[in-house]
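Researcher: Please translate sequence to structure tokens.
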Amino acid sequence: MRKKLVVLFLVFFFVGAAPAAGDQVVDRVVAVVNGEIITLFELEQKAQPILERFRNEQKGNLSETQGKEVRKRVLQNMIDNMLLQQEAERLEMEIEDSKIRERIRDIKNQRNWDDERLAQMLAKEGLEREEFEDNLREDMLRRRLVNAMVRRKLVVTEEEIQNYYDEHQDEFSQEKKVYLRLLVVPSRKKAETLRQRIVEGELDFAQAAREFSQGPAAEQGGDLGWVQWDDLASKWKDVLRSTDQGSITKPFPLQGQTALLYLEQMQEGEAQPLSAVRDTIAEQLRGPKFEKQLDTYLQRLRDKAVIDIRL
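Model: Translation complete:
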């Protein structure tokens, strides 16, 4: 989805800006947008990380045609970003300095950086602190414009939410899970003997695990806690299917030893009520609507603009 502008901007910004070593870029104008220019050097700064990612994915060089297509898409994103920036300025939108400081704090917290680490990363990207803050301000300005002109105008009706819920019940079911204890011993005979003693009440499973188990969590009575059913190995599922809650499985082989499972609790998968997933559904439904409305809004800006592409 080539028009996820703000996301792309941040990806370009943080992945790395410099052209690949050895590349020589003869600078020239590749686009003029309402009198503002985009240079070939600026385009290469944005395109190189994307080209490098494709090279890594393909494990080889891109063809000339592929390289041109990537640059063409990157340039269109740059033009769209410039149009959004110009429109935000025309509407006299502003981002307060306090918002910039708050965004920088968020970035540092998300990456567990201090000021020194941030400075190191900016230096690596060849950015001054002021330039970094200007980039953030422009990005936040575009976000504010898009929210005002597109996102806030999206409407998802209760009927749409209900229909989606009815048609996608499997998406909103809580996963089946089991609470297990595990006992692992060297031989099947030992496992059968211990199982019989537990069933007859001579000792409980946790006590047996603490005394005899050579498996994980032995000191905790073999307590594995809650485990998602889908995460269990097929052999575990097989023995548990024939075991009631509060019962012990039959012995089964486990990595050259023999194991017993105690099924302490089981929670069957069940559909969550609509009230619990309404917001999730609404956000899912907004996604395609947002893309469509953003495309429409950008096309209106393009239609009004004077754009000269020289790539």
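Researcher: Any highlights?
Model: The mean pLDDT is 86.
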